[in-house]
Structure formats: C-alpha cells, structure tokens
Amino acid sequence: MLFSVIGHYSLIVGLFFGLVLVYFSAKNFRNPKQLDTKILSFTFLQFFLVVISFLCLVSSFVISDFSNETVFNNSHTTKPLFYKIAGTWGNHEGSLLLWLLVLTLFILIFLVRTKNQPNKYRILTLVFQQIIIIGFFVFLIKTSNPFNYIYPIPTEGLGLNPILQDPALAIHPPILYLGYVGSSIIFSSVLAATTLNFVSKKWASHIKKWALSSWIFLTLGILLGSIWAYYELGWGGFWFWDPVENVSLMPWLALTTLLHCILVLEKKLILTSWVIILSISTFALSMSGTFLVRSGILNSVHTFANDPERGLFILIFLFSLIFLSLFIFFFFHKTSKNNLVSFFWLSKETAIIINNWFMMYFLSVVLIGTIYPIFLDVLSSQKISVGPPFYHKLIIPFLIPFLLIMAIGPKLKWIKSNLDNRIYLISLLIVSILLSILIVKNFSSNFLINTILISSALYLFFITLRDFFNKKFKNLAQNTAHFGFSLLILSILFNSLFSSEIITNLKVGETYENTKAKIVFESISQKEEKNYKSIIGNFIVQDSKGKIENLSPELRIYNQPNIATSEADIKTTLLSDKFMVINIVQNQDFFNVRYQVKPFMLWIWLSVILISFGGMMSFVKKEYEK
Amino acid sequence: MYGRKVKLRFLFVVLVLITLILTAFLVLKSLEENVVYFQSPSEIKALSELDKKKIRVGGMVKKNSISVNSSEINFIITDFKNEINVIYKGSVPNLFEEEKGVVAEGFLKDRNFFSATKILAKHDENYMPPEVKEALGEK
After folding, report:
1. A39-72 pLDDT, tens per residue?
2. Domain count of the fold of chain B
3. What is the domain range of residue B118?
4. Which of A249, A409, A584, A613 is the most exposed place for a label (fewest CB within 10 A)?
5. From A234, A301, A587, residue closest to B122, measured CB to CB
6. Counted domains in chain A
7. Is residue A160 within 8 Å of residue A87, measured between CB atoms?
C-alpha cells in the first residue's frame, strides 16, 4: 500500500520535473555559455524519482502486495522470488515503467558524457528527449498506471503466465528495451543536430557510440527471445516470422544500416540526410514495436490478452513525434553545398550504400508482411496471415549479392579503389563453390539456389577468417562481426537443410520406429514443485548408427493460473541438438511426441554472440583511442 | 562539374525508382501467392468452390470430439452453427483442449474434412484469437 503511494507520487513529481527541465532549458538556450547546473540536478532528480517508483513496484511484487492491481494481475504468493521480481516488467504497466527508467537514465548519461560538445546541442537534445519522457509519463499515469488500487484487497494474485516464468525471458525485456530506448537518444540528438546544423564528422563519431551500444543490446535482446522461443514454445525453431518477432527485427535492420552510414559519415561528410532519416525511422520502429506488441493489434502467437485503447495513445504520440521530426528535417536540414560529392563505383562507400539498399529492401519486406494483414483487416475485414514462405521467398535470393558485397566491401578503400589480390579473391570463391557443391550434393531439391547461397556464405566466411591472420588488416571489430554473420547464415542454412523430425502419438511403453530412429517411451514419473506439478516422460532414442540417448521432456501444470507448459528436453552437442517435447492430449492415454535432430543449433546462438561481440570491440576501441 | 552532379542525382533518382517498383512488384506478387486466409466452418459450408490453397480454420474444439491414434489426432472445430472434421498429423500446443479456441492451418479436402498441417499455439488461457472471437459472434 505504502509503496504504491510513494511510487505513484514519484511519477507525478517526475512528470513535473520534466516540464521544469523544458523551462530551464529554454532559459539556458538563450545564453548557452555554460550549462545551467540546475539542468543537470533536475535530470538526476527525475531519474532518481523514476528509480524510486520502479523500486516501489519491485517491492510491491516482492512482498506480494495485492492491493496493487498490477501485482494482483501478474503475481502469486507461491511464485519463486526471482519470478516475482521478473514479473515487474513481464506486464504492460511494468514494462512501460522500465522504458521510462531507461529513458531517464540514458539522458542523464548523455548529459554527463558530452561535456566537450557545444552546450546548445546538449540542451536541445535534452529538450527533445524530455518531450519523449513527458509523453511516456503522461501515458503511464493516464492509461497504464502501475500503482492502481483494488479494494477489497484480494488475498491471492492471478499469477504470472507460466510461459513467461523462465530465466531467459526474465532478462529479455530489459536487454531489449536498452536497445530500443538507446535509439531515442540517437533520435533526440539527430533532431538537435539538424536544428543547429551540427551534423558533422565530430558529431558522427560521438553518436556512433550510442548507436553501437543500443545495437549491441538489441542484438542480444533478440537473441534471448529467440533462444526462449526455441526451448519453450516446443516447435523446435528459433525464428517463426511471427509479427511480434518481426517488430524487434525491424529496428535492428534500421539500426544496423544506420550504424554503417554513421561510419561513412564519420570518414566523409556524405549521406547526412540518409543518417537523419534512418535515425528517425529506427526510433519510430522501436516505439511502434512496443506499441504493436502491447496494444493487441497484432494477431500473433505471442499476443497476450490486452487493452487496445492504450494503443491509440501511443499511436497519436508516435505520429506527433514523427511529424515533429519530419518538420525539423524539411525546414532545418541544409545539405552542405561546398562538399562536392564524388562517387566512384568501386569504393568502400559504394559497397556500404549498395548493402544499405538491400537492408532497406529486407526492412520493407518485413514491414509489409507484418502490417499488411492489419490494413487488410481494417479495410476489408478479411482475415489473413503471412507466413514464413513469403519472407523466405523474398529475402533469401537477395542474401546472395548481400553476402558477396559484405565480403568484398571491406577490402576496398574509401573514395576510390582497386581490387588488390584479385587472384586470391577469385580462388577463394572457387574453393567456396566447390565445397558447397560437395555439401549440397546429396540433397536433391533446390540444388542450385542452395549451392549458390552456401557458396556466398562460405566465401564471406573464408575471407573474414583469413583476415584474422592478416596483419595489415586492422579493423578487427568489423571483421569479427562480419565473420559472425557469415557463421550465422551458414548455421541457419545447414540447420534448415539437415534437420529431421519425427512426430507421433505414443502411449507409455510403446515404441516408434522408422529408418532414422527408434523411440521407446519407457515410463512417466511425476514431480511436485511449489507452484506446479510436472509429468516427466522418459524416452530412449536410438539413432540409425545405434547411438543411444535418454531424453526426458517435461510437462508442467501450473496451479495459478492453471496452464500447462511443455519443457523440451534438449541434448546439445557441438554439432547438433537433439530436441524432444511432449504434450498430453485431453482425455486420452496418448502423448503427443515431437523429436527433432537439429544440426548447428549451438552455432546459431554463438554466431549472434560473436556479432554483438564485434560491436563491443568497436565500442571499446573508440574509448581507448580517445 | 555541375553537369556531373546533376547526372549523378538523376542516376540516383532512377535507381531509387527502379528499386521501389521492383520491391513493390515482388512483394505484391508473393503476397498473392503466400497469404493464408482465415475462414470459419460456416464460411466453408457456404463456399461455392473449394479452394486448393492453404487456409486457416478457427473456432472451438467440440466437446468429446478429440480422438487420437498413434499417427493422427482427429477433432471437430465448431462455430456453434456449423462444424468441420479435422485430421491432423503433428504436434499440438499446450492450450489445445476441448471447448477452447483453436486455429488450424492446412488444406480443405471437402466441405466436411480439413487436413491440418499446423495447429497454432496461444500463450494465454483467456486469450482468444480475434478471428475466432469474430467467427463465434456474440457467443
């Protein structure tokens, strides 16, 4: 009770401080010799208040204070402490509070870390960021207050959706939000820089760090969500092209493009308008990501029952932000005239621009696939869904030139270049093609496209691998990330080509056998935990080589809410995963069994970690050089 | 020099246009081929012609209709006006239960039989797919 009161009033005071900050900034802006110390202290106070408010919500969850509506809806006394805490952001209200927390944290860090930048620019960035922050404060207090009371006070809560009671998903939202919200700083700073005509090489190298850090978090956040979907949803895949997944992929694509453009901008003052547009779209996509997931508009397997009215607020807010930024872009942005653009077709920037093109294409494909069903529903009330074939067909063919340019591009110099070592580049290409023919040979369907795809991925793989040992080639961070990407594509390709699956219904004691494997359903055992009961199936699987593996997938039946979840049993080795999941079919003795052998699963995760590690290296390197 | 710049701009605009047109063309064409329509059992009954394309059927799983053997799961989807038999080989989601909402994806064999290739999972016990809610009307 007490915590709710403190939390609620901290939010209101925080909103008030936001308005105070805008006022002080306006005053300071006219006389920008020195940054008003009041600005810094109020920013800190605002952050501090949101921290208090957030901690109050966490405490309400920890002590199971069911007079708080959010806690009542999403918690239960028997839940383990870890999930009580994680439950704080496992719901709409709490996750928005987390957004706000990160928003205020980032602007504080921004102000502290930009002492050597012009004050006008710092103040203006603060103002734009405060507009976003105030918007979120109002949204939180008006439509989704995490501190609403219920009276009479219920004795027990409704519990957290069991599918969310998982370590990966407990840390997934905070990591993802760090990435999403990081783009808000880029957004504010771009708007400020455009207004002041400050978009310069110096600005680029400073904003690059922000782009890098949010890119790293976004990458890791998507990875966590994907790993969770792999073992929790029981489909044995890692990406389903589901709308909710797509909305996190879209900002990632935009941000990756932005990152590369900033690199170009840092070296040569070109592409400024492009950088501005990309920054705006990255943030717009991040925000609409939150909006689409939380509003319940998307028809997705991940959708949780939700209140669509909240969506309207975010939508209006989002559109006014986009309108504001477009206004600034068109009226303040001046293309520098004295900078003559001289393009030569064979140069690093051309390679980057071409791949930017492809990234934008991928982005539009994902965007259309995600929102087209919504539009069609609104316009003609026809219900449709767009599945994986759509995305595969449109994206995969274009990966081939994309990968090749990714391999060659970094070899080129800025402005104008020749291809050195042509013989070595061509011989590596031939090796890759031969190798992929060998790999795909036994696989009959789609021989041509698979061979070309694998060759181009292998090509990137070999080139980046060799560059690790090339002393002349210094850009280790970029090379690591690109190497990781080639590894990711290769693992995904091998994974989809060589996966095998058996689905059958078995009773206890029965055996399933085909040419590939023999599955024996030995027995079931039961286990009772604090907040769930579990049924464990014990299986013995023998593959065609006679290798025996014990797998014991689990079926959990949670008591509050009363939901069953399947916990897959996964035996991971370096080269492949053995994956088994069971499900009970109502009123029947049969268990629905799904057994999959998934090669290179581990490498998909590892390569994404490697990609983000490349980002981290670049982040640290810049620090170091300064 | 000025002429070169104009030429470059022109080339750029042309490239943008070509990409846009190409993208639009590719996307629309493959949308046409890969979109999956949603239909309720009543809508299927009313079909004048059977579609060969993949569709989704949604409604409630009828009480006492689930039966399982070692290779198949059979059940009936109903929207309380009409119903359709579903034959399914594959794995079922956790929330697949009688008298709960379900969405099945697959192909129509005739107006009474549907061969499903996928049954969609939902995360939330109270959640009902919007299509199902609509298909069931006020129920």
Report:
1. 999 999 999 999 999 999 999 999 999 999 889 8
2. 2
3. 37-135
4. A613
5. A301
6. 2
7. yes
